[in-house]
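Bench log, entry 3. Co-assembly request; chain sequences pasted below exactly as received.
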Amino acid sequence: MALLEILHFPNPRLRLKARPVTQVDDQVRQVVKDMFETMYKAPGIGLAATQVNIQLEVIVMDVSEDKDQPLCLINPIIIESDGTEEMQEGCLSVPGFYENVVRAEKVKIQALNENGGSFELDADGLLAVCIQHEMDHLQGKLFVDYLSPLKRQRIKKKLTKLEKSGDLPNSSNSSHAI
Ligand code: K1U
Ligand code: ZN
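Structure output for the full assembly:
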């Protein structure tokens, strides 16, 4: 297994669109394993392949308290959505910043698992938010895109400075005021 490097906003590679996986083979399963290792180490509750510079529609997640419910989504599509909900979000690619975002309250998705099997999942709460956040990554979209241009610009400036100085903190151990 290998730890993968997580790209940080405003890296332009975070804006690339992922392409669907055509065959869920051993190479894809290795990417999934490496992404789980990277997500758990960060630590985070989700990770999209785009964040580790892989342009494939692959997402790993685990929103459980005990970190014992790994979930892999390959080529996910939202087939139903309902309601709206506002929740605070973070992002491993935007370390240290947490902001409220409005998203669908419930989503039903269809995806492939790491064995290539198709499944459907009804999600609400944090799981629904995380799925939508990660699916945005696959389209090159970040949660900062839902904020005002002023807030986004401030975050960009701070992260650019921190990246240059080598002081970029881990997302889980610090937060910044904007
Ligand atoms: O996509 C990512 O960068 C992962 C992101 C997922 C996410 C979090 C919150 C709302 C929507 C999507 C994270 O995991 S940020 C880190 C985080 O939330 C966390 C870290 C440690 C413990 C618990 C949560
Ligand atoms: Zn994110």
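The chain has a mean pLDDT of 95. The two ends are 37 Å apart (CA to CA).
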